[in-house]
Amino acid sequence: MDLILKYFPELSDVQIQQFEALQPLYESWNSKINVISRKDIQSLYLKHVLHSLAIAKVVQFKPQSHVLDVGTGGGFPGIPMAILYPDTRFYLADSIQKKIKVVRAVASSLGLNNVTANHIRAEQVEGSFDFIISRAVTTMPSFVKWVKHKVKKHHRHDLKNGILYLKGGDLSEELSSYPKATIYPIKDFFDPSFFETKKVVHLPLKFKNTKGFAKIPKT
Q1: pLDDT of residue 162
Q2: Considering the entire predicted model, what is its pTM?
Q3: What's the domain count of the chain?
Q4: What is the pLDDT of residues 26-63, one digit of tens each?
Q5: Among 112, 160, 164, which residue's Cα sits nearest to residue 136?
Q6: Where does residue 64 rank: exposed (0-12), middle (13-18), buried (19+ CB within 10 A)?
Q7: Torsion 98-40-24-77 (CA) sign
Q8: Which of 1, 2, 11, 91 is nearest to 56 (CA)?
Q9: For residue 191, is it within any domain?
Q10: CATH (domain of 146)
Q11: DSSP assignment, residue 122?
């Protein structure tokens, strides 16, 4: 938790309480449903929470923005970002139902009224969003195919609407087809060596007509 306060010192008392509650909540749920690697649970704040919050060093979501988290797993990066931006709407989607069960329970326990979580594949999500966030669920070309028609037309942020992707390693080949992609090394934001090779990738996407407005159908 000290790591979070080091890099985000202006948290409110409510936000601090919510972040502090993550460790016991995930330890409890992980003993029933394995959503975080057993060896990583004691490094929750470093490897999952702070890693998720690297997105906030690239863009600060404005109130009433709509953000889709694809392949959220146990709720990352969506849950930490929802704590940090209580006035932004977050839609967390995953194809594994038991993981969404955990996400819903954690969001409810924290009182995160700005989170909707559903068991659904990315391709089935309807609506339009300012940004689509994710943590390395697949290669960028595959991910783009899933979400390329899900961005809003009008930009409200300094960054253009599109993908914010957390991924590590050498991305030169994977991003070779995307000249507009920008890579932000996380080591520029956070000191721990864990982030040495990790990045936030921003890829703007063109608006396409969609079927609705930030809706995820119940399943």
Answers
A1: 97
A2: 0.93
A3: 1
A4: 999 999 998 998 888 999 999 999 999 999 999 999 99
A5: 164
A6: exposed
A7: negative
A8: 11
A9: yes
A10: 3.40.50.150
A11: G
Contact 161, 67 (CB under 8 A): no
Residue 25 lies in a domain: yes
Q: Are 27 and 51 in contact (CB under 8 A)?
A: no
Token couple for 171 = 């991305």
Residue 51's beta-bridge partner residues? Answer: none
Q: Give the per-residue pLDDT at 39.
A: 84
The candidate with the shortest Cα–Cα distance to 52, out of 202, 160, 167, is: 167
What is the number of other CB atoms lying within 10 angstroms of the CB of residue 13?
7
> According to the model, what pLDDT value does residue 37 have?
86
Domain carrying residue 28 = 2-204
Structure-token match 């594949």, residue found: 121
pLDDT at 209: 61
Length of the chain: 219
- Indicate the pLDDT class of residue 207, thresholds 50, 70 and 90: confident
Q: Is residue 219 part of a domain?
A: no
